[in-house]
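Go through this one:
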Amino acid sequence: MKNNSLPKNLALAKIREGGVVSVYVTGNFASPRHVDFVARSGYFDAIWFDLEHFDIPTQELATLCLVAKASPVTTIARLKATDYQVVMRTLETGAGGLMCSMVADAEEARRIVSWAKFNNPQPAPGEVTGQRGWNGGNIDSGYAAHPAIEYMRHQNTETMILCQIEHAQAVENAAQIAAVPGVSGLFFGPGDYSASIGLPGQIGHEEVRKAMAKVAAAAHAAGKFWGTVAVGPEMYGKAIEMGAQFLCPGGDLKVMTLSLRELVKSLAGAPQKTLAA
């Protein structure tokens, strides 16, 4: 018998069970085959599409999300949630969550939640509602294959809303942002934060780590999860010790760079032939 139920958000389920979600980021080389390759590897629970720094049109994002759905991988779209239409259209591509960049305060977080959540007249216990516009005929609804209430409840409860904390003001407001109903968790951006305090690229600096600890504490106090970019085993391990459950060790650019280096190393010692002049 055909299973026509709406898909569970596997990354969110893992977090709810106390697990750690490993995330791969792509923007430079975001293509269907690249997504398929990463998703099939089995190494990652989620793929983060970087719409903030790269121009990935809505229709292209929808294709990338559809490719990822063939594997047990959750898709996350990172973007600056500047308006309702951006949030709504992104969710209708079937993305399992939004990573909202440069969130400054609780008021901004509340606007994002309102744009992302439906006004379900029959909310389940703990379900947060909002004012998202109704369509019901897109990818996230299975093309109108589900009853309206079922679809609304699924989107309201199974879509991740992450607020990125990336500058000093946001760190100070992290507790209030985390406490907003409907915010799933916080994501600390060490690169942007280091640049914002005049230490560009120094993601391991003590001041950056202090800020990350504040974000972790804010998330824990609100009963929410948190995550970050964790480059290398030392930083990854530190984040785990601090209770991070959503960790990105890197993505396409790092993979391409390391692979090229390994390819060159594989030729070390091989005979080199030069053409005669």
